[in-house]
């Protein structure tokens, strides 16, 4: 649990007890009692179900984010462990099918990860000068999964500097040698560097850049004594991804994480509503003591949340909604919690659209879902390649796992750094080949291997141009050849 100091700023820790349901003979409906506001409140089972649905949609991204953070920054026995909090871990390689913690991983750019514990004091990033044409970014992600800001080629340039990330309680003065101060809504956050890799031979240059990324607590950056030590967080056991999808324990994991999320003014009434079923910062719901009727209502609420997600996913597959709609600041999302859930469920930590866009392929040109038993092509007409200031890629994912695909070429994507290797069409266009079996040696340069079964693909446009942002450029269709 969080320290006693932490409880001074978090949403009040309600001492909630969910009682077994009783029957009101006059109203003919089951009720639930809650001490959330200091007096008993009767809730119908329909209300419990509705609130559970809302709380689940709201909380799923937070719980899943905490699951990843626990693996990356807390559990040293986890194969995906990176480094302790406030310590950069450079990964001098790209994702492969062996990486299974994050859905739809990016294999374009080697990553550097850092978990940010901002409770005691700010963290200062020192960034080196990076050559003009190499793309880099530092994506800053709060506990809600909002991308609350960026450093990088697009936003701050490649000239280097000192950038301070401060938590919501920090009230200190900004040192003179700080280039920019960025505030985070939550006490716990994470950040990920992406550094462009041109080819295998370029890896040594990427490693050199990664080794110059520095993160220090403000006191260490200033050469002063360490800020007063804050108590380590005692973490609740994270759920597996499958458990997150259906277990009532998800609400307790949400309650744990909410301790590090001071209530936003726009969500005060929402938190009061959630508290009626025991969802509140630091609270523990005794799920074993709940009546069967209450348990069913809450489970039904979770199922209702996934039903809403499925409807949104259909719109996504039809192109009526973009994956980019789920990533961004709180202001951009406008508290659209279902979009935020969509983003976390399909590919947590995606970029804000100004940083990268994600045109996706879930169906072919005839509206059929994609399967490796068929052959497909994507053709870019001359002068109609993805419009970007940096680079673009197309990555293959098997379904339903949304993970990279093992194949004989160890090729998980095609991207614009491979343009010199691609074979162009007679008119100067470019045709990419999507299928499970090799199209033959003479065509393998344009081949993206698919699995034998269901799959999807995501195109990434890094630092997209206005033509992409305003929708005047459209991704070409995926055409089935059989």
UniProtKB/TrEMBL annotation:
Residue ranges of every copy of the DUF1214 domain listed in the record: 355-466
Keywords: Signal, Viral envelope protein, Virion
Signal peptide location: 1-22
Gene3D superfamilies given in the database record: Domain of unknown function DUF1214, C-terminal domain (2.60.120.600), Domain of unknown function DUF1254 (2.60.40.1610)
Keyword Chloroplast among UniProt keywords: no
InterPro entries documented for this protein: DUF1214, DUF1214_C_sf, DUF1254, DUF1254_sf
A family per Pfam: DUF1254
This protein's name: Cell envelope protein
Organism per entry: Flavobacterium beibuense
Lineage: Bacteria, Pseudomonadati, Bacteroidota, Flavobacteriia, Flavobacteriales
């Amino acid at each position: 649990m969080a320290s006693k100091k932490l409880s001074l700023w978090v949403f009040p820790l309600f001492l909630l007890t969910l009682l077994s349901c009783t029957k009101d003979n006059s109203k003919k409906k089951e009720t639930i009692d809650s001490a959330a506001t200091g007096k008993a409140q009767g809730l119908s089972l329909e209300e419990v179900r509705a609130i559970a649905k809302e709380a689940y949609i709201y909380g799923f991204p937070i719980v899943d984010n905490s699951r990843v953070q626990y693996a990356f920054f807390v559990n040293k026995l986890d194969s995906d462990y990176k480094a302790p909090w406030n310590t950069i871990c450079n990964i001098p390689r790209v994702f492969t099918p062996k990486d299974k913690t994050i859905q739809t991983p990016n294999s374009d750019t080697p990553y550097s990860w850092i978990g940010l514990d901002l409770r005691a004091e700010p963290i200062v990033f020192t960034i080196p000068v990076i050559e003009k044409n190499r793309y880099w970014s530092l994506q800053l992600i709060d506990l809600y999964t909002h991308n609350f800001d960026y450093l990088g080629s697009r936003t701050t340039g490649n000239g280097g500097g000192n950038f301070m990330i401060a938590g919501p309680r920090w009230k200190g003065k900004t040192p003179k040698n700080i280039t920019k101060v960025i505030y985070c809504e939550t006490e716990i956050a994470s950040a990920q560097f992406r550094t462009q890799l041109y080819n295998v031979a370029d890896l040594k240059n990427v490693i050199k850049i990664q080794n110059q990324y520095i993160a220090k607590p403000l006191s260490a950056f200033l050469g002063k004594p360490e800020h007063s030590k804050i108590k380590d967080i005692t973490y609740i056991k994270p759920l597996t991804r499958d458990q997150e999808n259906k277990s009532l324990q998800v609400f307790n994991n949400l309650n744990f994480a909410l301790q590090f999320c001071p209530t936003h003014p726009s969500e005060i009434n929402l938190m009061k509503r959630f508290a009626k079923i025991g969802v509140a910062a630091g609270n523990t719901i005794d799920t074993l003591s709940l009546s069967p009727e209450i348990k069913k209502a809450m489970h039904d609420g979770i199922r209702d949340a996934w039903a809403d997600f499925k409807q949104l996913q259909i719109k996504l597959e039809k192109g009526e909604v973009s994956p980019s709609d789920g990533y961004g600041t709180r202001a951009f999302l406008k508290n659209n919690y279902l979009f935020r859930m969509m983003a976390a469920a399909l590919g947590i930590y995606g970029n804000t659209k100004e940083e990268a866009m994600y045109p996706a392929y879930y169906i072919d040109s005839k509206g059929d879902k994609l399967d490796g038993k068929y052959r497909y092509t994507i053709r870019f007409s001359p002068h109609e390649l993805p419009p970007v200031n940096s680079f673009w890629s197309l990555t293959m994912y098997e379904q339903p796992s949304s993970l990279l695909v093992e194949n004989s070429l160890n090729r998980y994507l095609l991207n614009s750094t491979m343009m010199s290797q691609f074979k162009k069409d007679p008119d100067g266009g470019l045709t990419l080949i999507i299928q499970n079996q090799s199209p033959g040696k003479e065509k393998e340069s344009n081949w993206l291997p698919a699995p034998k079964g269901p799959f999807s693909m995501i195109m990434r446009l890094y630092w997209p141009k206005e033509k992409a942002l305003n929708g005047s450029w459209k991704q070409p269709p995926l055409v089935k050849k059989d």
